[in-house]
Structure formats: C-alpha cells, structure tokens
Write a structure and sequence with these properties.
The protein has 256 residues and is mostly helical. The chain folds into 2 domains: 109 residues, Arc Repressor Mutant, subunit A (Orthogonal Bundle), CATH 1.10.10.10; 131 residues, Four Helix Bundle (Hemerythrin (Met), subunit A), CATH 1.20.120.530. 70% of the residues lie in helices and 4% in strands. A 3-stranded antiparallel beta sheet has the order 1-3-2. Helix 4 packs parallel to helix 12. The chain binds zinc ion.
Length: 256
Amino acid sequence: MHNPEHHSQKFRLQLKTPRSTRARQYSSDQLYRALYDAIATSALRPGQKLTEEVIGQAFGATRWTIRPVLRRLASDGVVKIFRNRGAFVARPAIGEAREVFAARRILESGLLAQFKKLAKQELVRLRKHLRDEDRARREKDNRGQIQLAGGFHMLLADIAGNRLLSGMLKDLITQNALAVTVYQRSSDTTCRTDDHRTLVELLKQDKASAAARLMVKHLNEIENSLVFEASADDAPELSVILNSIRKRNETNRSRS
Ligand SMILES: [Zn+2]
C-alpha cells in the first residue's frame, strides 16, 4: 500500500507547484464538487478514510469548511460518518448494491416508457455523447468511460425533463459506481456502448416501450457481471489521490 518511491515523486511535484497556486483556498461548493466527482469516478475508492487534516492540506480548507461538506456528501449517501472514527467513502453492502440496481431499473425503464419521440436537437446531443463514449473507449480512458457511461443515463433523464427524477438518478448512479468499484472482477465493468446506441435508435423510431425493456436488460447485465462477495481493497493513500485531483483541476482551470 505504501510506496516510498511514489511518495518522493509526489514531493518533487509539490516543490514545482508555484506558491500562488498552493495558497488558493477551495470554497465549500468547490470542495463538495471535487470530492463528489472523485467518488463518482472511483478516484476515491469505497471504504477510503477521508481525513480532515489531509483534505485541508490538499485543498487549503479549514475543518469549518470540510465538516459541512462531509455531512452533505453523507446525506447524498456517498460518504459514511462514524462517531469517533470519522468519515469514509461509502462502501455499499451486497444488499444495498442490489437495491441500487433495482431502483435504477424501475426509475429508468419508467422514464423511457413515457418518452416522446426525440426532437432533432436531442438526437444530435445523444449522438455526440455516443461519439465521446467511443473515443474514451478507444483511448482506454478509464475514468472518462465511467463518467461518460453515467453521463449517458443522466442525459436521457435530462431530455425526459423531470428534474426531481434527474436528481434521484444522479445519486443512484454515483452509488452504483461505488457498488461496481467494490464488486467488479474485471476492470471493464461499465455500460455497453452498443446498448446505448440501440437505445438512441429505438427512441428515434418512437419505440419507447422497446427502449424501456432494453434498459432493464442493460442494467441487469451490469449487475450480473459483478461478483457479490467481500473483497480486499488496495486504495492508494488519501493525500496522493487528493493532490492529483487538485493538480488536474488546476490544469483544467488554467486551460479554460
Ligand atoms: Zn448504460
């Protein structure tokens, strides 16, 4: 778990970071989004301890900022807080993981069953998303693939136009990503892009109930590819993960 070589490399990277970038403080919302995204894309792994001190050092935040953010993540169901032990990335038990899949099947097939024929603009958005998924797969961009796979389902919910259901689905997809991280046995357990493509074609042809049935099958296949047994975890150290997230955020910001 502890790799001294990795550690010294990180130290050198930090020395190169300009002072002004290091001093920047994350607001409560920015910290919430950074941690939520890190959990949703499995950069932070289920069961990982979220130490306030380490988060504070990585993001220049005080515990008065960090604690409410951790509580907010706990109310989303992606963090668990234990008295006297602190906060951890949620690690869904087998029963909880199965419940998340069941909830997604009900919610998403219900959404699709009521779908109206796609407008041209919506079809353009969905097809662009499919191309992005293809690219991430080609480039073996694992993090991108997880994000885009969940993003496809979110896009369908957005197009359906029910904000309450979209919000529920966002939390379910994040909890689903946690379950997949814990119980997958091969690294490519994610959505099949050809299913996504077929879903778009069915919706384009106004075949909403066929799309709803395919959605149930699609989610079943992901659930069936998981192995529901207790597993050992080999998460890297929290400080290593958080510093790389922070660095990536800063690179993105300086590009835009
Ligand atoms: Zn999918």
